[in-house]
Amino acid sequence: MALVRGNAVVEDPFTNLAGREDIPSSGAIIVDLEQWRANRDALAGRADPVGIRLRSDQPPELIAAELGFLDMVALEFPAFKDGRAYSYARLLRDQYGYTGEIRAVGDVLLEQLHFMERTGFDAFELDSDDPLRDLQIARSEFDVWYQPSADGRMTAIELRHQRGG
Amino acid sequence: MYRYDEFDHKLVAERVEQLRRQVKRRMSGELTEDQFKPLRLMNGLYMQLHAYMLRVNVPYGSLSSAQMRKFAHVARRYDKGFGHFTTRQNIQYNWIKLEETPDLLAELAEVEVTAIQSSGNCVRNITSDHYAGRAKDELEDPRVYCELLRQYSVLNPEFSYLPRKFKIAVTGSPHDRAAVALHDIGLRMHLNEAGQVGFEVLVGGGQGRTPFLAHTIREWLEPEHLLSYVEAILRVYNIHGRRDNIHKARIKIIVNQMGIDRYRELVEADFERIRGSALKIPQAELDRINAYFAPPEYEELEDISGELAALRAADERFDRWVGANVAAHKVPGYSIVNLSLKAPGRAPGDMTADAMDAVADLADRYSMGEIRVNHRQNLSFVDVRQCELHTLWQKLEGLELATPNINRLSDVVCCPGLDFCSLANSRSIPVAQDLSRHFIDVDKLALVGDFTINISGCMNACGHHHVGNIGILGVDKRGKEFFQLTLGGSSDEGASLGDRLGRALPQEDVPLAVEAIVAAYLDIREEGERFLDTYRRVGIEPFKEAVYGPSVVRAVA
What we know:
The complex is a heterodimer.
Chain A: E1 2-5, E2 8-10, E3 15-16, E4 29-32, H1 33-38, H2 40-44, E5 50-54, E6 72-77, H3 84-95, E7 101-106, H4 110-119, E8 123-126, H5 131-140, H6 156-160
Parallel strand pairs in A: 3-4, 4-5, 5-6, 6-7, 7-8
Antiparallel strand pairs in A: 1-2, 1-8
Helix pairs in contact in A: 4-5
Chain B: H1 6-27, H2 33-41, E1 45-47, E2 52-56, E3 62-64, H3 65-78, E4 82-85, E5 91-96, H4 101-110, E6 127-128, H5 143-153, E7 168-171, E8 185-191, E9 197-203, E10 215-221, H6 226-240, H7 251-258, H8 260-274, H9 283-292, H10 305-314, H11 316-325, E11 326-328, E12 334-339, E13 350-352, H12 353-366, E14 370-373, E15 379-385, H13 389-398, E16 413-414, H14 429-438, H15 442-448, E17 453-456, E18 470-477, E19 480-487, E20 499-500, E21 505-506, H16 510-524, H17 531-538, H18 541-548
Parallel strand pairs in B: 6-7, 7-8, 16-17, 17-18
Antiparallel strand pairs in B: 1-2, 2-5, 3-14, 4-5, 4-13, 8-9, 9-10, 11-12, 12-15, 14-15, 18-19, 19-20, 19-21
Helix pairs in contact in B: 1-2, 1-4, 3-12, 6-8, 7-8, 10-11, 16-18
């Protein structure tokens, strides 16, 4: 499993606390929604970065008021067929104005990276022999976009009428 | 018709190359079948009983003669020489090789046709009125909005992994030929109190094993907000739609579980947020697309109704054909001609490559090079000079495309059934063939009048049996095929779902049962009543009696 961000494979600075009772006093951590709620004040006041991992049945409105305290939101794809997190990422960017890292975790495949980047994801936990090649393929396949999305790319409609204004 | 510009061409070419790479990855084993399946489905490829089936989109049912010739070429080069037109205005090929598909799609792209999202849990081909742009009762050409929706839905990054498939239909006429109430989203143009054209938006209709008629979610929507509103509906569905059970995953289920009022609240809230976004349709883009659908240059033709009446009086067969297969055009001197793909004994919707070529030639010669596909698996020429009707009729007769049965008893809609489909549990095509052979008396067809029969080989309802005046559903009972009849369905304005008539019948009794229903109808109909009107007036009892009653001589199953 590799963490890809920007154009590089990077070391994950976060420790995932899934299933742990204790919360270490320092270091970047990822908690789930239950852990966040149980330790909300301590986590909100924490000096080191805190990320949250949401299941695909946990929409971002559940943490809308807490986003100012969160350095990263990981959205889970329990199976690649479960497309809820694409909408969650868009809502995080467009509705809640979240500018921190949005990470795709779970069943993340090359074939989805393009759609993920378009909807606002900027980090990916990829299970691949060659994650950078995957990313490069995913980014090179298309350069026409019909829909406006969270990536702000110009749509075909906008490009068609650019000159005329 | 719409023509691709540089952006459209580029995207389709990129999509073909992407599939080429994915097929390579599948062949090398880099992708598992489980991972590959949604990718091939989103390019229209199904694994069927004998081979891959490829479903190719006919965008909102409009085809050029060049596209039809390409379909013929594909049928010869990549299939066994025929194709099958479907109830969603598409064409399917049944004998496709996976490794040849990228080349096949590249050939289709040359004539601006794709298989993008003709399957998969995403927004499918947008369907519409096959008389669009030509119908007398139309407010505006719905295809302009179909094209906007096509572009909006193709490779939509947020909505390519919906809970289930998603079908949108648009009509611009009060007489609904697009079955909008049976779609995930139905859009019906109408005027508001100020006299402006807008859309009634319907949501949550559909057939399958749990049929529902759609609810109105918004009475009137400004056309410029169409994409924003559709996006809001899709987003609420993507987030709230059920993913725990494939049979409960369509939007109709969540709309009816949540209630239309709650669903509307969620959609309206999101719509308010995004209506000012880049989704708002710029007038310049509307104008650009509109220009492609501008009416062709019609000639100023003399009214020839007198001459036509004389020809009809002189030739009974021509008269029957005009009566059943020719429809009114909005321009004087022109007609719409329907080509029946339901000659006696034929598999509904099937067409050979040679017939496709012949139809393309006739379209060039007699109908400005355009062909329409409709959801009852027939074709239409929409710009025929009335003075050429008689000549065209003779040519269509020669091709066995002039059976005078459009919307008549033997114009049976039918899914591919167990002859091809891996989901089916009965052979539906032989039932359709039986019926079209049984009702060959054209005088009787004319006497009975408007009548729709729809057959589905299983409860997935691809033959739309729920909305047939007579619906026929294939069921499996202890390894034997039986057929369950429903009565009173309709997909037009004022749509209704059929009611179950009684116990299922063996195949050989289906034509007899239909015959008995027709006889009962002729017996009790009042002046000017279609079967549907009579059924709605008298209910199901007289027809139950006719099929199962004690006076019925032949015992049915």
